[in-house]
Amino acid sequence: MNPETTTPKQTPPPTSLPKQNLMSRISDLWIWSKTHKRAVLVAIAIIFLFIIIIFSVFETLRERFFPSKDNQAQNQSDNQNFSASMRINTNKDSYTVNEKVIVTISAHSQEQAVAAFDVLLEFDPEYLSLTTQRKPLLSEYMYFYNSFSESSIQIAAVQQGKDISDQIFTDTALFEFEFTIKKAGTTDISLIYDRQSNNESNLLNSESVDMLSNVYGKRIEIK
Predict the structure, then answer these.
(1) 218 neighbors 179 (Cβ within 8 angstroms)
(2) Are 115 and 167 within 8 A, CB to CB?
(3) CB neighbours of residue 184 within 10 Å
(4) In b/e form, how buried is each residue of 1-19, taking b as 16+ CB within 10 angstroms?
(5) What are the C-alpha distances in Å from 9 to residues 2, 4, 6, 13, 39?
(6) Which fold has domain 84-222?
(7) What is the number of other CB atoms lying within 10 angstroms of the CB of residue 97?
(8) What is the pLDDT of residue 69?
């Protein structure tokens, strides 16, 4: 008789190995952190500072573009104390078809320093078409050309640097644009200003209070 052959049993891998590896890594990390305390503290400080910066930027942008009702009311109340103005000027009052129109936006801040400004300009595309976007006129400000559409231009600018005490507008030209006349008639170029809106023309001081009280558009005749 042949002796019976038996197949040796296969031992399954230990199920505790992944857990052991995890615990080993945690232990190694703990040991490393104890021997590199300064690096750990610096890393925590950097992360904490980064979180604070992100939160501050978020709050600033939120309050700038979506102010609370209390702040809106406060800004409107503060606005009563200012009489700053913004005006549209053209190189002349009467034009002919296909002629170029130079439009300049100027502002007067009534001896108050200006930290930032927004301009929302509207025009009739049946009469005017934007030809040239000219260079910003104020080197002290960083300009953001927010949007250009068929009938409107929106621009924002904020002062570069911290000291704004000397940035006072006295019929100061903010920027220029060139338009081309398309047809004869009478048309208006307007500045949009509405204290109840977040999307409007404004002149802001260092406290983000809108100092703008009056805007003046321009009517041109086309022969």
Answers:
(1) no
(2) yes
(3) 13
(4) eeeeeeeeeeeeeeeeeee
(5) 21, 15, 9, 13, 51
(6) Immunoglobulin-like (2.60.40)
(7) 13
(8) 47
**Count of other CB atoms within 10 angstroms of residue 218:** 18
Six-digit token string for 214: 């009056």
What DSSP state is assigned to residue 97?
T
Please give the biggest Cα pair distance in the chain.
Answer: 124
Dist. CA 21–CA 28, nearest whole Å: 10
pLDDT tens sequence across 41-69: 777 878 878 888 777 666 655 555 555 54
* Cβ proximity of 134 and 100 under 8 Å: no
Domain positions in the chain are 20-66, 84-222
Please identify every stretch of the chain with a pLDDT value under 50, giving residue numbers as ranges: 1, 16-17, 69, 72-79
User: Could you tell me if 203 and 211 are in contact, meaning their C-beta atoms sit under 8 angstroms apart?
Assistant: yes
- CA 108, distance to chain mean position in Å, is 23
Q: Which residues on adjacent β-strands are paired with residue 204? A: 116, 210
Q: Return the structure tokens found at 55.
A: 């939160």
